[in-house]
Amino acid sequence: MNDYLYLLQPRFKSTLNILKRYNTDRLVKTVFFGLLGILFWIGIYIIFHRVLLYFRGVQGIGDLLSERLLSMVFLTFFSILIFSNITTSLSTFYISEELNLLLSAPVPQERIFFSKFIETMTDSSWMVLSFGLPVFIAYGTAYHSPFYYYLAIPFILLPFLVIPSGIGITITVFLSKILPARMARNFFFLLSIFAFIILYLLFRFLRPERFTDPEAFGSLVGYFTELAIPASPWIPSYWATKAVLPLLKGGGEGLLFYFLMILSTALTSFIIVGWVSKKYYYDGWARAQEKKSTSSGWKFMESFLSIIRKPQARSLITKDIKTFVRDTAQWSQLFLLMALVVVYLYNFKAIPFDRVPLASFYLKNLISFLNLGLAGLVLTAITSRFIYPSVSLEGQAYWIVRSSPTSLRDFIWSKFWTGFIPLILLAEFLIIVSNRILNVTDFMMALSTVTIFIMTFGITGLGVGLGAIYPRFKFENAAQIPMGFGGVLYMILSMVFISATIVLEAWPVYIIFWVKFIGRALRPSEILIVVLSFFAVILLNFLAFYLPMRIGLKKLEEREI
Amino acid sequence: MIKLIDLKKTFNGFPAVNGITLKVEKGELFCLVGPNGAGKTTTIKMMTGLLKPTGGKIIIDGNDLQEEPLMVKGIIGYIPDRPFIYEKLTGKEFLKFFAGLFGEEGKTVDDKIERLLNLFELKEWSEELIEGYSHGMKQRLVISSALLHSPKVIIVDEPMVGLDPKGIRLVKRIFKKLSSDDVTIFMTTHNLSVAEELGNRIGIINEGNLIAVGTMDDLRKMAKGGGAYHDMPLLEDIFLRLTGGEELDEVIEVLR
Ligand SMILES: Nc1ncnc2c1ncn2[C@@H]1O[C@H](COP(=O)(O)OP(=O)(O)O)[C@@H](O)[C@H]1O
Ligand SMILES: [Mg+2]
User: Is the pTM for the entire model greater than 0.90?
Assistant: First the structure.
């Protein structure tokens, strides 16, 4: 056993090292995310606890409802776990760098397999498990279960978790026999992102916040009684439900039978996956190492980019686009971005304007105005992830630009335009579609499109500029870049700048609407305020765009590498 | 072609390069040798604009690097000691990108890229992403990129590190050929046999000071002045003597 655990040591040790190298920056982040996690946890607990208490109060079918909920929880876990085990095992079994070393070392293959199995299982299960914990505790407290309910849960869960791992890894091994692992991984990566988006959207459409309203529980009962949950006695999640249920009330009938069902299935699946991987794993792994050559589908883009006159700028932009597209970790985030946009626009559809018909005209225009600020925040988030790191992403290869006869001015401006063009398209899309949904006046539409246009200059310039003032050319993982001091400063400055723009505009817009409302013309003093505010907006945006770019350029010129 | 005038660089008060004055003629192959930490890389980085000198001047082809940085960088081909390059480009794309940075494009460049890829035996890999290259392949790619724009001056830091014997021979031959074509080469190395074989003139640097400059013959004379060495000392002996590394003999004694 010790021998097997030995192979897991590098993982364990590197985790320890991370813990050892705690600095305040990391501490703050851990505390922040820790608190967020705890809040989320408490939220899950409270929702489940209340729902369960309500169910218990329902005459006759209360326990049936709880059982259905529990079997739904287990079924959800089971399917998510299969999925996440597939994606995780693709990287732990096929792509991970250490495999080269391990597979060439004189270590028996079973041992590698076993340690990889455990690694895959923990990596893909801990998240689901931590979401599950408050649910099980909520069941326990709602049913005043005896203490051995809590003790038994881990013993039921552990073999239960082995089953989806076995299934997932087997699927992966077979898949890699057919597809190259890299392709399979990209494919599943996309699938998992889609799955995440769909889950998230489902969650939004379910509107869990309404369950805090007791009246909504009535419809929940109706929902659960009608819901046809696949409760085949052949699915492991069914056994888990049946094993947990009697424990809740302190009973034990059927517990041993279902527990043994889970345990034996877990063992069987472990043995099957061991056998399958012994037969097919090495082949698939060797195939995964074959590097595929790149296609030459870039001709179109290159001819499009030939509108840029300067060869230096064109080279840099072409290089950045290619690097972005070829880096799965980078472009895949575009899917999250899409989800963000869909949710963003959906929120406007969801606002119940019809309930307040009188105020709705002004309310809509007011919201369209606040929309600007909100869109600005979305753009800031995107910029901090995609545009702020653009200078740092040159990484250790920055010497190439620095020692070439390309001016840093061309360099920083090429970064600006590569970020600005896609961002402005997105910005105008967000603003125009959301204003369409809101059905705002032509005046607000014009004002918003022009303002977001100007603001995008500021948001991009601030991002590229601060990225150049605080570059991190030595990073291990590109995702770290926006997390540093400069990245946080960017977020703060950008938010301040957006709020300032909104406030500077809100005032004259308020005056214009007010004057229209009471039906008189603008006074000269009011016209002056309106004109001055708009000038102030333009000046502010110019400064937000120009100053950081300028300082960034200067810092880059002074910087030694 | 290259003039370094009282060139200095201090890092937080520590003098890494301590006032170097040096002239390299057109077409000359100059080797700067010195132990680890002597200030070779620092000197080179100042000559390519990656570091700003604390004092002194760098004149290349009659232009001051500080005043006309882009013009000077345009005639330099720089090969750094570690080949960090963009991993997500293919070898060929990298060379094209590199040419673009020098403002060069079109058919002539494409042809030259093909020739360089063939010369450095990278043709077969030219459509593959650089992330799959070995260290030596990256090094060869960087060397070909530095030759792409036909530089008048080549500045190289430890070119032989990471190359296989075949690669080393190729690079030696290319440098000799370029030098005979009037390209000036400024090279650092801690590999003394390379310096001895290639260098028209050799400079020895230690603790930021240029302690000796000259042809092999000059250096031999200098070392002989001290007495205790053979009639025809190798550069290694001269080097150890001048840089005070004689305790190395004791190390060898211990190892016996
Ligand atoms: N960026 C830096 N900051 C501080 N010290 C440096 C830096 N770069 C080099 N040094 C120091 O300067 C000295 C010369 O280094 P270097 O020029 O790299 O030597 P080498 O001759 O081996 O190339 C060394 O002592 C090194 O530690
Ligand atoms: Mg060095």
Answer: no
